[in-house]
Amino acid sequence: MQTITLNNSTLTTIPSGIARPRYDRSALAAGILHIGVGNFHRAHQAWYLHRLMQQGLSHEWAIIGAGVRPFDEQQRQKMRAQDYLTTLIELDPSGRSAEIVGSMIDYVPVQEGNVPLIERMAQPDIRIVSLTVTESGYYVDPATNAFNAAHPDIVHDVQNPDTPQTAFGAIMAALRLRRDRGHGPFTGLSCDNLQGNGAILRQTVVSLARLSDPELADWIDQTCTFPNSMVDCIVPATGPKELALVRELGVADDVPVSHENFRQWVIEDKFCSGRPAWDKVGVTFSDRVHDYETMKLRILNAGHQIIAGAGELLSIDTISGCMAHPGIASLFSKVETEEIAPFVVPVPGMTPESYINLIGERFRNPAIVDTTRRVAYDGASRHAGFLLPIMREALATDGSIDGLALVEAIWARMCHGTREDGSLIEPNDPNWMELTRISAAAKEKPQVWLDQRHIYGDLGKNARLAVAFEKWLKLIWDTGIDATLKVYCGKD
After folding, report:
1. Does residue 166 contact residue 153 with C-beta atoms inside 8 Å?
2. What keywords is this UniProt entry annotated with (predicted)?
3. Does the N-terminal or the C-terminal CB of the chain have fewer CB atoms within 10 Å?
């Protein structure tokens, strides 16, 4: 099939079955700078703004992309070649559809020292700086949620405030310029999967500023806003399958994005310099963001961690494949219903039980090729952020932790680096070698795993957790994952 190269000049020739921007992209003006232009941002935040623009609204809020890693420059070059347009492909068991999203209009060159990024954020047209830099990217101790001032990246930025290497150092430097030039503050909007992500973003930026410029720190704290938000949409990584799929549709797009047929965005309405009318396209503005995000983080994100470790050990490549495995599906249902739902409160229109059913359906969607490896990545941060807070509450209220302890034991076994069929698990954590070493030691002495204070904090010394964890880890090593899941689920 002949394909059309995606760019502004070819939009009118894109195959008729693919929706495209109806607005004049040349008339758009910047209002948002987004750091971390990955697939999720383009399928979620950029799509919501695109929907507004399709209605003739918010044309003064177009997105400028940005990043601070070498990968981001590669992404910029690919997107620049197609005028920052993205093909979104919605994958549903009943079929697929596609549209071209045009809400991004530029991308800041990625350079060491981040001077172009700082200068662009300092311009008065930028009124929101949003981020998707992963939940582990905020320089927070996962065991305490405290700012990690000793991290080498932070030390560098304190010593080199005009040429920082982190996104937060660049934000601080840009806010200093805005204050000095009289341009006023902007809103910092985290779109990462963190409990209280706005509060964490405020903590990181203000704490970093306080280390070198206390007056600036006070100004940021008093004038900038950092609304908490909850974001939700399953968006797989782009690989050869997605590249082939977009070409089947007749479009030559080097950075297409596939996604499920579900989106949700809940935000506190705290924007110091204005915002797009996102509420007109389905965004929920609420002062109960904490409840929405708790439901999502504890059921969806924790649910991913419940199934991913077992899937890796059983050589199951995809999340839908994990949910097709009877033992893993039973593990998901039992842990979610018995040990997580009691610590989730209902939100308007949704109970914890109905949300568990919804997430199960979304995980089982075979059209979404979301890899087990992607979901299992950076388990140290994800277990600490999604599962351990539930365990703390359960222990404090004498609730059940048996299934949660099993999930931790499965992860500890996974970090050994071998699957049950003998194949190797490629490094899948920033500290993989250390986790592999400790996993090997824990095979003989399970407590060694729980003694990782940077992950478990004081939980590692809890006797009830230690007993349950040791039981499950020894059973996994002795009998394997399948047999262990049958024991837990009462099917053996």
Report:
1. yes
2. Oxidoreductase
3. N
Q: Which domains does the chain have, with CATH numbers?
A: 4-286 (3.40.50.720), 290-488 (1.10.1040.10)
- 322 sits in the region (left: phi over 0; alpha: psi -120 to 50; else beta) called alpha
Between the alpha carbon of residue 280 and those of residues 32, 168, 277, 283, 295, the distances in Å are: 18, 31, 6, 7, 24
Amino acid at 49: L
List the structure tokens of 262. 């579900």
What is the distance between the alpha carbons of residues 225 and 189, in angstroms, rounded to a whole number?
Answer: 8
Helix (H, G, I), strand (E, B) or coil at 380: helix
Q: Which two tokens stand for residue 61?
A: 């809020």
| Cα 330 versus chain centre, distance | 25
C-alpha triplet 272, 274, 276: angle, nearest 5°: 140
Contacts of 450 (CB under 8 A, 6+ apart): 456, 459, 460, 461, 465, 466, 469
Sign of the CA dihedral 68, 235, 227, 25? positive
What residues contact residue 169 under an 8 Å CB cut-off, 6+ apart?
114, 156, 157, 160, 161, 208
**Residuewise pLDDT in 10s, the chain (492 residues):** 689 999 999 999 999 999 999 999 999 999 999 999 999 999 999 999 999 999 999 999 999 999 998 889 999 999 999 999 999 999 988 889 999 999 999 999 999 999 999 999 999 999 999 999 988 899 998 778 899 999 999 999 999 999 999 999 999 999 999 999 999 999 999 999 988 999 999 999 999 999 999 999 999 999 999 999 999 999 999 999 999 999 999 999 999 999 999 999 999 999 999 999 999 999 999 999 999 999 999 999 999 999 999 999 999 999 999 999 999 999 999 999 999 999 999 999 999 999 999 999 999 999 998 999 999 999 999 999 999 999 999 999 999 999 999 999 999 999 999 999 999 999 999 999 999 999 999 999 999 999 999 999 999 999 999 999 999 999 999 999 999 999 999 976
Spatial distance between the Cα atoms of 131 and 466, rounded to a whole number of angstroms: 37
Q: What is the bridge-based pairing of β-strands 257-259 and 187-190?
A: unpaired
Alpha-carbon gap, residue 286 to 140, rounded angstroms: 26
Q: Which residue has the tokens 């400028």?
A: 64
Please give the model's pTM, rounded to 2 decimal places. 0.89
- Beta carbons within 8 Å of 207's beta carbon, 6+ residues apart: 147, 149, 217
Measuring CA to CA, which residue among 340, 330, 339 is closest to residue 307? Answer: 330
* Secondary structure class of 381 (helix, strand, coil): helix
Phi, psi (deg, nearest 5) at residue 392: -60, -45
